[in-house]
Design goal:
alpha/beta; 6-stranded parallel beta sheet; two-stranded antiparallel ribbon; 50% helix
């Protein structure tokens, strides 16, 4: 696999289309090349339209994958062959491949409510032999976060999964990736909750019919205001296409 990654634009944001995202990242990991991975969906794209700082972080990321159905639709309307690749599936693929790394190579889960990241780490250590995963919940005081940053710098995990929600996780990674410059950093949203069993992912029917957002709204009805970004994105996608 070469180091190229075809790039397309979605509302001015980059999206990379690859056959094997995890393979590309593992290649960079073995080469000692750090990477920030952004999992772009319609909600994040609309946030970036209103938040230039978020747009800048996305544009600087080494890899931006088409996480949402809206992003895939936008690309397909413009003749770009794209398949949706949810961030949780990329993270799971990386964890499976990380089981082949030497036992001394640590991984890290950061974010979520107290106990959730630790439970998610336990789930994966039971699932994949050889994984060494440290964890830290995301509810830290300023002093605790200072100590955490120092621990992370000393540990130098090869893969760092950050579940702080959008856009906080993207900003946090951009601000702190210098602590572990050769690591792969991935924003994973609520994946820890799913791996820990505190929430469930949408059934296959919802995913196959691009309705995963509806199942998520059912689980988290307080998100309804944020979901208004979906029709807004669709209108922009169709409007720009007609133009």
């Amino acid at each position: 696999m070469d180091g190229s990654r075809p790039q397309f634009s979605v509302l001015g944001l980059p999206v990379h289309i690859l056959d094997d995202y995890a393979g590309w990242l593992m290649q960079r990991l073995h080469q000692g090349l750090g990477s920030h991975v952004v999992t772009l969906n319609a909600e994040m794209a609309m946030q970036a339209e209103q938040n230039q700082a978020l747009a800048d972080v996305i544009r600087k990321a080494e890899l931006v994958i088409p996480d949402g159905s809206g992003v895939v639709l936008y690309l397909r309307l413009r003749g770009k062959p794209a398949q949706r690749y949810p961030g949780i599936e990329l993270a799971e693929s990386l964890l499976q491949q990380a089981g082949k790394l030497p036992d001394s190579e640590p991984l890290f889960f950061f974010g979520g409510s107290p106990g959730v990241a630790a439970a998610a780490a336990k789930t994966w250590q039971q699932k994949v032999n050889g994984l060494s995963i440290a964890s830290q919940h995301g509810y830290l005081s300023a002093e605790e976060e200072k100590d955490f940053r120092e621990s992370l710098k000393q540990m130098q995990p090869k893969l760092i999964f950050v579940g702080l929600g959008v856009p906080r996780q993207e900003f946090w990674i951009a601000e702190h990736r210098h602590l572990c410059p050769q690591s792969i950093w991935v924003g994973v949203g609520g994946s820890f909750d799913i791996w820990a069993g505190t929430k469930t992912r949408a059934p296959a029917w919802f995913c196959d019919n691009h309705l995963e957002w509806l199942y998520r709204l059912y689980q988290e009805p307080w998100r309804w205001r944020r979901m208004l970004a979906l029709p807004q994105f669709a209108l922009k996608a169709l409007g720009n296409f007609r133009a």
